[in-house]
Write a structure and sequence with these properties.
The chain has 13 helices and twelve strands. It is an alpha/beta fold. The strands form four sheets. The protein has a six-stranded parallel sheet. A hairpin with a 2-residue loop joins strand 3 (92-93) and strand 4 (96-97). It is globular, with a radius of gyration of 19 Å.
């Protein structure tokens, strides 16, 4: 199986947790089962998920992020020098508030012995010549944003007085994890990144700009740390990125088109493709795609994971043709706009509705690209 990503028919990574896995996680949190018993349920659930992914005709397989509670924090907690902390309040997503958890530093950051390497090996063993195993992790910029957000910044400054040293150590830690993943057989890696989606939100930036760095300065930092993480990566390791506007229990955090960040993200980040949300008017139009440099590809996230309503095939095809005005069709692909369960709560649709969405993506891809 060619590991070059993205594929015409693609996914972002996370899937709805089956009921038995949700129950096992609750039992583990309540002390009713031990870690090994939870792992047994996770293992079985992932094997069943991968079987369904193959049946659906997906060219890529993931563990659905079934071993995680969060799409981003679990990875951060797996780095050395980082610990879990409870905040006074969680992230605000429109009319919902998440669990009040974050990642803070206890010392300098490093990436050895990361648990995600073992997690990947489990999925890699389920790979065959029809599918490629993919690992998804939060982007280095997302980690930087978490460490410098309100409530965490002062803790970070106690460890790193110099911001450049912080960025360098994040880059080094990620390179170590990526090297270990590569040694485990990973050839397909996806960075998930909400930082750019927040940049797109004009209202958010008007509020944030009080005594805060400019968008341009932060964009330069985020591009720098993301590129540092993949500096000198092996040529046969494909690294892509998914740009998200927030995904929690079918709610979202930011809105706005890609124009404010297009020159930075599309022009300067050294990834091979961008998974972009285009499922509704919050994402703006396709014109910013003209900034995508070189032979990079774009995966159009035109199928929403936030609603159970199945999209109209002809309407999606029409939008692909609109995107084609700014990028050639052979550099475009199709996927859902985000994962179906960025956190263990999942979005407000059923597993059957989830697979119906993916069936629709496959049908459209076959019709457009053959």
């Amino acid at each position: 199986m060619n590991n070059r990503a993205p594929f015409r028919f693609d996914i972002v990574g996370s899937f709805l947790r089956p009921g038995k896995l949700k129950a096992a996680r609750r039992d583990y949190a309540a002390g009713k089962i031990n870690r090994e018993e939870l792992k047994e349920v996770e293992d079985r659930s992932i094997i069943e998920l991968v079987h369904k992914q193959k049946e659906a005709g997906l060219p890529v397989i993931t563990d659905g992020e079934f071993r995680r509670s969060w799409w981003h924090l679990d990875f951060m907690w797996g780095l050395q020098g980082v610990e879990r902390k409870e905040n006074a309040q969680g992230y605000v997503f429109r009319d919902e508030v998440t669990r009040p958890e974050t990642a803070v530093l206890t010392g300098r950051i490093s990436g050895e012995n990361h648990p995600f390497v073992k997690h990947f090996k489990f999925v890699k063993a389920l790979e065959d010549n029809t599918v490629t195993a993919r690992q998804t992790i939060p982007a280095p910029a997302q980690f930087l944003a978490e460490l410098t957000r309100a409530g965490n910044a002062e803790i970070t400054k106690q460890i790193y007085e110099n911001e450049d040293e912080l960025i360098d150590d994040i880059g080094k830690a990620y390179r170590r994890v990526i090297s270990d993943l590569y040694a485990a057989g990973c050839r397909n890696l996806q960075f998930d990144d909400c930082t750019w989606g927040m940049f797109c939100d004009v209202k958010y930036w008007k509020i944030r700009q009080k005594n805060a760095p400019s968008l341009e300065k932060l964009a330069e930092q985020y591009v720098k740390v993301n590129n540092l993480a993949i500096k000198d990566k092996p040529k046969d390791l494909v690294v892509t990125t998914h740009v998200c506007r927030g995904n929690y229990h079918s709610t979202w955090a930011s809105q706005g088109g890609y124009a404010p960040i297009a020159p930075h993200l599309f022009g300067q980040e050294n990834v091979e493709a961008y998974y972009l949300e285009f499922d509704d008017e919050r994402s703006g139009d396709f014109e910013p795609l003209k900034y995508v440099t070189g032979d990079k590809k774009v995966v159009l996230g035109l199928i929403t994971t936030k609603s159970p309503v199945l999209e109209d095939k002809e309407a999606i095809i029409k939008r692909i043709r609109q995107a084609e005005q700014y990028m050639p069709l052979d550099r475009l692909c199709l996927s859902p706009q985000c994962g179906f369960a960025s956190t263990e709560e999942g979005n407000k649709l059923t597993e059957e509705e989830q697979w119906a969405k993916l069936k629709l993506v496959k049908e459209i891809v076959q019709e457009i690209w053959g």
